[in-house]
Amino acid sequence: MTDSLTTQQITSAEIRAHLRERSSATLRRRMATSRIMTILCWLAISLAAVPLVALLIRLFEKGTPVLLKSGFFTQLPQQPTLFDQTNTGGVSNAIIGSIAIIAYATLASIPIGIVVGIYTAESDSKFASTIRVVASTMVGAPSILMGLFAFGLIVVQLHLGFSILAGSFAVSVLMLPVLIGSTEIAVRNVPPTLREAGLALGAKPSTTSLRIVLPAATTGIVTGAILAISRAVGETAPVLLVIGGAYAITWKPNDPGSALPVTMNSYVASNFDSLKDLAWGIGLLLVLVIFVLSFAARIWAARKQKVQR
Questions:
Q1: What is the pLDDT of residues 25-60, one digit of tens each?
Q2: Which residue range(s) make up the domain with 130?
Q3: Nearest to 284 by CA among 72, 74, 131
């Protein structure tokens, strides 16, 4: 017995010595490879950041004076003329229209997205798998397809016409797969011991999901909802085909409306430089709104996770 233990100890010592020898022999090569890959990664990040930084610098350079212009947030848009090419007005109608579209879309999509996300996370049925595949496919689908779908259903089939409601429907369809995916991930990340504890106390599976699992997954769900909203804010294609582009200030669902991305898209193609400058201001406003929403979601999630720990 003693000889057997001695043999095992000698064998283990020889293995460790052999591993140290081999690792020492390749240490220099591995360190050099690590440094080269690190340099290549930083180089790739720098190359990717160059156009982004250049665009942001240009955007702030051209858009900041427009945002500081009197009446940009409060006046209705005006049409410049050859005698007064600076008569552009503001974008108050587009701001109100964007807020209305995002608000209606959020109210419609968040409850559905959360319920479906919980179902796909809690169920392993074929129907849940089908929903999961469809949601994953919709995330990568071009956003203009949502606009075409809303146009065909709301405008053509239901004869509701071009309206804020149609734009909200298109945006809500765009937000749904993001909400479903983020909710499913948040629910699956809840420790299984919480669910097991609820079931052990005699609670029904539905009660356990609503009273225990869902509150524990609130941080991830809210973060996903904010990110879905930030994505929908800057989308042009889904609302371009269905909202009508009215110049009046309205938030009624059945009325034609306007939106910031649609207004920017029309101003970029204008023959007046003043309207093109106004498009830079709208672009900067959208970037700031999206940045604030995304940053707020990250900060809120980090603080909630810190508190939970």
A1: 677 777 888 899 999 999 999 998 898 899 899 999
A2: 92-308
A3: 72
Number of separate domains in the chain: 2
25 or 184, higher pLDDT:
184
* Average pLDDT score, the chain: 84
Q: Report yes or no on 149 lying in a domain.
A: yes
- 16 pLDDT band, cuts 50/70/90, is confident
Whole-model pTM? 0.81
pLDDT at position 71 is: 84
pLDDT at 5: 43
Judgement on whether residues 103 and 171 belong to the same structural domain of the protein: yes
Do 97 and 237 reside in the same domain of the chain?
A: yes
For residue 86, being part of any structural domain is answered with no
